[in-house]
From TrEMBL:
Listed InterPro entries: Class_I_gatase-like, DJ-1/PfpI, Homeodomain-like_sf, HTH_AraC, HTH_AraC-typ_CS, INH-QAR
Organism, scientific name: Streptomyces macrosporus
Name of this protein: Helix-turn-helix domain-containing protein
Entry keywords, A to Z: DNA-binding, Transcription, Transcription regulation
Stretches assigned to the HTH araC/xylS-type domain: 246-344
rRNA-binding keyword on record: no
Pfam families assigned: DJ-1_PfpI, HTH_18
Keyword DNA-binding in record: yes
Membrane spanning residue stretches: none
Region (Disordered): 1-22, 342-367
């Protein structure tokens, strides 16, 4: 398996400040692979996530798509417990990438305290110093912490490893209760599916809610799980209860422009408000009001990206009310105003009839 590339080299560049506003566009993604150690079979999922999200071109959603490369940590065969990945790209290729992803580190480095390769740690530091956005999935947080990139920052990892992470790196503010943490230039996630949530969050941040939602639909996964959602959800509720919630939540998403209350949803589910609150919290890790706000913000983002509707109308259709209320929630939860968000995702006008179709991978050139 090798990295997917458009043929453009990752060239070292001077220190720069990455944009933390949404709409920065797709860029180059370098994924760290423990080439000399081998990838254990149980870590293949985390490695496959960034390859699936960032490596497969989606020209109908965004062109150009991300430019992905797998960067090995060194030569040598696997130790027999996993899969050896051959790639022509090494740690030097991390420097100059727009985003660097560390999907995991060897179990021995987490469980037994074996040191991580010094050249990997140095490469991560150099990539960050060059301005790369640094991302870890699951135990990859140990590599970012070892490089000092999490000092004084909030971070997470799989809940079974967060105690070890906190004990080994006391300068890191470890949160074992969330799916992922976005610090702007450094992002960390819990294990397994939470890594997919974080990668889709990055697409949402770079290319917008519409692109991220369509990609999630193709992958048959939830379009958006907020990073603050509980990492470990109480699943003591029978499966039939979750299935009973689904029709109500689908109905609510189709009626976001209406003044919905917890009582309305509970009555539709034939439950008391208290029971509805408890079951939704158990199934999703969030409260009914938080869930509604998240859906309404997602609807507003999609409308701002894909339509020219006035901000007042966007607030009305998303159920967030007046333009002032929409602005309040956007500034609080998205970090920018609705107008700034819209400017970050300019709609591309349809091509004139008979106009040539841009070739895949072609990048727009500024006049």
């Amino acid at each position: 398996m090798t990295g997917v590339t458009s043929g453009t080299e990752f060239l070292p560049r001077p220190r720069r400040r990455r944009r933390t506003l949404p709409g920065m566009g797709a860029g180059s993604v370098a994924v760290v692979v423990p080439e000399g150690i081998g990838v254990p079979s149980w870590d293949l999922y985390e490695l496959a996530i960034p390859c699936t999200v960032f490596g497969k071109p989606q020209p109908d959603l965004a062109d150009p798509w991300y430019d992905l490369r797998l960067c090995g940590t060194g030569d040598g065969p696997a130790d027999g417990t996993g899969l050896a990945v051959r790639t022509p790209y090494g740690l030097d290729d991390l420097v100059g990438a727009d985003t660097v992803v560390v999907p995991s580190v060897p179990d021995a480095c987490v469980e037994e305290g074996e040191p991580l390769p010094p050249d990997l740690i140095e490469a991560l530091r150099r990539a960050h110093e060059a301005g790369a956005r640094m991302v870890s999935l699951c135990t990859g947080a140990f590599a970012l912490a070892e490089a000092g990139l999490l000092d004084g920052r909030r971070a997470t990892a799989h809940w079974t490893h967060t105690a070890q992470l906190a004990a080994r790196y006391p300068e890191v503010e470890v949160d074992d209760s969330v799916l992922y943490v976005d610090n702007g230039d450094v992002l960390t996630s819990a294990g397994l599916t939470a890594g997919l949530d974080l990668c889709l969050h990055i697409v949402r941040r770079d290319l917008g809610a519409h692109v991220a939602n369509q990609l999630a639909r193709r992958m048959v996964v939830p379009a958006h799980r907020p990073g603050g959602q509980a990492q470990f959800v109480d699943l003591a509720v029978p499966a039939t209860d979750d299935e009973g919630l689904a029709p109500v939540l689908e109905w609510a998403q189709a009626h976001l422009d209406e003044p919905l209350t917890v009582g309305d949803l509970a009555r539709r589910a034939a439950m008391s408000p208290r029971t509805f609150h408890r079951r939704l919290r158990a199934a999703t890790g969030t409260t009914p009001l938080q869930w509604l706000l998240g859906r309404r913000l997602a609807r507003a983002q999609s409308l701002l990206e894909s339509t020219d509707l006035p901000v007042e109308k966007v607030g009305e259709l998303s159920g967030l009310g007046t333009a002032n209320n929409l602005r309040h929630h956007f500034l609080k939860h998205v970090g920018v105003s609705p107008s700034d968000y819209r400017r970050a995702f300019p709609r591309t006008p349809p091509a004139p009839v008979g106009a040539p179709t841009p070739r895949r991978g072609a990048r727009a050139v500024s006049p």
